[in-house]
Amino acid sequence: MILEEPQFLAGLSLWYLLSLAAWIAALVWGVRRLLYARRTSHGQPSRMRWINAGLSLWMLLAGLTAVEGYFALFYDQSDSFNMTNVSDRWFKRHVRTNVAGFRDDRPLDKTAPPGVYRLWFIGDSFTFGHGVNNPADRFSDRVGAALDRQHPGRFSVSNIAEAGISIAHVENLIKKSLEMDYEFDTVVYVICLNDIEPYVESNGERYSKMGKLRAPFLIRDTYFFNLLWFRLKAAMQPQVRNYYSDLADAYREGEPLTRFLYTLDELHSLCVRHKIELRIAIFPFLHNLGPDYPFAAAHKVLIDHCRRQEIPVLDLAPALEPHLSEGLMVNRFDAHPNERAHQLAAEAILNDLLSDLTKSP
To answer: 300's torsion region: left (phi>0), alpha (psi -120 to 50) or beta?
Structure first.
């Protein structure tokens, strides 16, 4: 059972709330007993030592309970891999889907009224808005709002992103949408550089271990202690520490890159056959973006390929890098783009990738 109201309780199970209430009641009962025993034990030094030790233990437990309560009721942040209960609750609090199953406030109708241009954004968690509380703050929704201000009623913009998908899933999702008779004019595929990951066999094997991490029974259903356990485990897992940087090699010549580009070409051909325009935006990894950005070569490979295939492409790194000092990540433990990064991405997409649409009469 999930309680929706009030907001600070959203995402907490009834079992957890009852257990927390019972624990707090036990603490209250315990301190009352200890204080009573203290009042009645003057002149008994040995007994007083045990009582004072019990009060010290009570204060420790009360402090830890207060911390746990804060992380359960008020702390509201996601993390990169969504392994913790805190991050899972963030999804329960902030992610609502339409009838089609996508995180979008608007329904995904199969057709649009005559004269309305349909624009779809597709991608993984960067496009989905992982860590962004309000979907209106995502770049897709900002683009839709800007187009509607400039040309009221002329455009219909939808976000059909899904967290965790790769380029193969993107192709399959577009294929299924067409088979279900959805009609749209342009699809913007926002590439996150780990979209190549399924074609890197060793990485796929290693990263599957992250999903198998399980907290010990005593802290499995907590929030602070569960968060602390996963943070410590992640710090000891090389596949977590190097999750982003060790994908750079995949964009050098070899089978992973060949398969990735082949799938991209298949997606392009699929769109061409159905008279849909495919456009590409490349979102950089923000936590290591800068002068020594290890994925600079990967960006160039993708841009050069898109240009050879005559696919409109936009590299978002130049638009984001000058603003790194502003803080563009959701938080220290979540490297997804925050609201400011989405705003910058939306401006670049409107000005450079969709400039022909913004000038549409």
So the answer is: alpha
pLDDT digits (tens, 9 = 90+) for 201-213: 654 555 555 555 6
CATH number of 85-358: 3.40.50.1110
DSSP-based three-state secondary structure for 249: helix
Locate the domains of the chain by residue range: 7-73, 85-358
Q: Which ranges of the chain does DSSP label H, i.e. alpha helix?
A: 14-39, 45-73, 85-94, 125-128, 139-150, 167-179, 201-207, 224-235, 238-241, 255-273, 296-308, 317-320, 339-348, 355-358
Give this prediction's pTM: 0.89
Q: Token pair of 303, please?
A: 């841009």
pLDDT-derived band of residue 3, with 50, 70 and 90 as boundaries? very low
d(CA 259, CA 239): 23
Identify the residue whose tokens are 């030592």.
Answer: 49
The residues near 302 (Cβ < 8 Å, ≥ 6 apart) are 191, 251, 280, 282, 313
